[in-house]
Design a protein that fits this description.
With 229 residues, this protein is of the alpha/beta class. It is 38% helix and 16% strand. The protein contains 8 helices and 7 strands, in the order βαβαβαβαβαβααβα. 42% of the residues are buried. The model has no long low-confidence stretch (mean pLDDT 92).
């Protein structure tokens, strides 16, 4: 099966080259790399435009910064693989772990696999306490309304069968994408698995972007897609 790696990218000039090399080195035979630049202003866009043809399979350039959800929506449209995985461009998640993420789908036990930062004994950088509290609260609230028992709803690593993904319309432009997609795959009765992954979290000084405002947006999205749809 071909694995499409969709990489939403905003102001990641310092990491995007290393990230692509890591994805290329991932122990998966057939990989398609799709980068969506979401209106970067730090030179990322120019760097991508200057790369030779074949460096990655596809590059999509957004007209301006619309948000992660909007970037993923465009990336999903472009992906042609049998499976689609989301890969952030910031090196917080390790492409070497693709085999453990796709295994439940390859074994026909799952339609969607989440990589949980809170399961298993893999390496996990110790960073922000309140981020962990916020993540646990959002995951709990989402679980209460979807009747799932996820441990990490906000994880970047989500793998989908492409036919399932094609049946879902993504509406959220920003970080509301995470609770939206969880609600929609839950309502679709998709088979969902979690696997433990490592996590190399960044600090704000290193470029981390998510903030408390995104937490309120996530609460709104959880209620919107579970109660009012």
């Amino acid at each position: 099966m071909k694995l499409s790696v969709v990489i939403p990218c905003y102001n990641e000039r310092q990491t995007i080259d290393a990230l692509v090399k890591a994805v290329r080195a991932a122990p998966v035979e057939d990989i398609e790399i799709v980068i969506v630049d979401d209106g970067s202003t730090d030179g990322t866009r120019e760097f991508l435009q200057a790369k030779p043809q074949g460096w990655v399979d596809k590059i999509v350039l957004q007209k301006r910064n619309f948000g992660k959800g909007a970037a993923l929506r465009e990336g999903f449209k472009t992906a042609t693989g049998d499976l689609v995985i989301i890969q952030d461009a910031d090196l917080e998640y390790d492409p070497k772990e693709y085999p453990i993420l796709i295994a439940p789908i390859m074994e026909d036990r799952a339609d969607v696999v989440f990589g949980s930062r809170f399961l298993g004994g893999r390496a996990h950088r110790v960073v922000y306490f309140w981020h962990m509290v916020g993540n646990r609260f959002l995951t709990l609230l989402s679980n209460m309304l979807t009747n799932l028992n996820l441990t990490d709803m906000e994880t970047c690593y989500k793998v989908f069968r492409r036919d399932l993904l094609a049946s879902i319309t993504i509406e959220e432009d920003r970080f509301g994408f995470e609770p939206e997609i969880v609600a929609k795959i839950a309502h679709a009765k998709a088979r969902i698995y979690e696997v433990g992954i490592s996590y190399y979290g960044r600090t704000y000084e290193q470029g981390k972007k998510i903030g408390w405002q995104d937490g309120f947006a996530a609460i709104y999205a959880i209620l919107k897609y579970n109660l009012f749809r």
